[in-house]
Write a structure and sequence with these properties.
By secondary structure, this protein is an alpha+beta fold. The chain has six helices and 30 strands. The longest helix has about 30 residues, at about 370-400.
Length: about 475
């Protein structure tokens, strides 16, 4: 068995067998629904396989004659008689005819694939040790809707020894090669005709062996599992200019035994892990959380699958037994660490406090740090109080000791009514009424801030220059009014 998956509603699961069969079954009961067969040409056999990013449902089968079949699972939803019906099928985005990867016809022993609306990229290691990259680019005329394809291929110049796994990131610009016990090489495959080595790093401590490797949703981060159960997240970090270096970001609570398989979720930064003692663990990368660990079997877990919403799992052990479950996993991205501490997000150069809850791009990862909101609120309240407290005290003194009784009867009830109003309402009124008034008289408002203090000083100085009799008359008229 090669892959396991499920559709969004968690009603139908899929199983890709080691032969040519792709089987669909009811997620809960395992009852068969349908089956399709990979169109392998006569005289050829499947020698390798790979799956792309979970959202694409893409998979590829390397053949013994140097060709590759690229397939994609599809789930059509219809509502006859107001009842939801999900119909599974298999599509071939690069055509049912196998894609020629190696013109020499050598068997494909290792394989990686990514597929999207812009095209398909395949990386293949042949039986004689060559590493080939082939891209099928699809151009669609926006006026007519007609599509045309172009196939571009190239060969990696120096191939490291002991290649164990190939991965292509989601945007089909980089190829990751795991070789030896713990070495990983990154290649730039933006130009499919001439792949270029960018760096080689050791992704596990000396004495440990990498036993599982997976890319998280979005194709930016790598999750590395070792023979000691350790799990580590790596992703490229900009060092200078446009140069990026693969960096160890965070470690997770280890599994009880050696990691055997890692499967990422479809859209979130979560992943599930199986180990050699039959445990299944669920993790979330950004919040650095271990959500749960369950022992499913006494046999090693060899295959895992998750539905698109991350609310279940399919697990198969070495004895062939399949375990299925529904999982309540609504907000794994929330933890004390992700809310109040610095978090190192993908594409950031260092850990930081970030609040960014939504975006237009589906690849976006929500960022829920409350620290910026809390600090911003405290800072705004502090600055507001520095201005408002002196004004309020001076205004109260003026109202109590210097304001005329007639004016006080208007001002005092108005302030008391404002005290009863929530600040949100006052802010709404200020934004609705005061802000346009200030905007329309911006020059006068700014000048008043500058001119009002010297005008008050000037008025006090002029008061001192007035004749005593005039001062007495003015004070007497004020007393009479009060």
């Amino acid at each position: 068995m090669l892959f396991r998956s499920a559709e969004e509603q968690r009603e139908i699961g899929s199983r890709v067998g080691a032969g040519r069969s792709i089987s669909f079954f009811e997620f809960g009961s395992g009852k068969p629904i349908g089956q399709a067969r990979v169109p392998v040409p006569e005289g050829a056999r499947i020698t390798s396989s790979a799956s792309g990013e979970r959202r694409s449902y893409a998979m590829a089968f390397g053949l013994s004659d140097g060709r590759v079949v690229v397939a994609r699972q599809a789930f059509a939803v219809s509502f006859p008689n107001d009842q939801r019906v999900i119909t599974p099928s298999v599509e071939y985005p690069a055509g049912e005819a196998p894609l020629v990867v190696d013109p020499r016809g050598q068997p494909v022993t290792k394989l990686a694939v990514q597929q999207s609306g812009e095209g398909t990229t395949v990386a293949a290691l042949t039986d004689d040790g060559r590493l080939l990259v082939v891209g099928v680019e699809i151009d669609t005329n926006p006026m007519t809707g007609e599509s045309s394809s172009q196939t571009i291929g190239g060969e990696v110049g120096v191939v490291p020894g002991g290649v164990r796994e190939l991965l292509i990131e989601a945007k089909q610009r980089e190829l990751v090669v795991l070789h030896g016990d713990r070495s990983l090489s990154r290649y730039d495959i933006g130009d499919k005709a001439s792949p270029r080595l960018m760096e080689t790093v050791e992704i596990a401590p000396e004495g440990q062996r990498v036993t599982a490797l997976a890319m998280l949703s979005g194709g930016f981060s790598l999750i590395v599992g070792t023979d000691r159960g350790e799990l580590v997240q790596w992703f490229p970090v900009r060092t200078e200019g446009t140069t990026f270096a693969l960096t160890r970001i965070r470690d997770f609570e280890p599994m009880p035994a050696a990691v055997t398989t890692i499967v990422p979720e479809f859209t979130r930064k979560g992943f599930v892990v199986g180990d050699e003692q039959g445990h299944l663990g669920s993790y979330f990368a950004t919040s650095q959380r271990l959500l749960f660990v369950d022992k499913l079997s006494d046999q090693p877990i060899v295959r895992l699958g998750v539905p698109p919403r991350g609310n279940g799992y399919l697990a198969q052990d070495a004895a062939g037994k399949v375990h299925a479950a529904v999982v309540a996993n609504h907000y794994p991205e929330v933890s004390f660490h992700s809310i109040w501490q610095k978090v190192w997000y993908e594409s950031y150069e260092a850990p930081d406090y970030v609040w960014q809850s939504s975006a237009a791009n589906a690849d976006f990862e929500p960022k829920f740090s409350l620290a910026p909101l809390t600090y911003g609120t405290i800072k705004a309240a502090t600055y507001a109080m520095l201005i408002s407290v002196p004004l309020a005290i001076l205004g109260a003194i003026f109202t109590a000791y210097f304001m005329s009784a007639r004016m006080r009867t208007i001002v005092k009830p108005t302030i008391e009514v404002m005290e009863a109003l929530p600040t949100v309402v006052l802010g709404f009124l200020a934004g609705l009424w005061l802000a346009p008034l200030v905007e329309n008289n911006l020059a006068g408002v700014l000048l008043s801030i500058v001119l009002l203090p010297p005008a008050m000083v000037l008025g006090a100085w002029l008061w001192q220059l007035l004749p005593p009799q005039l001062k007495w008359l003015l004070l007497k008229s004020r007393q009479n009014s009060t």
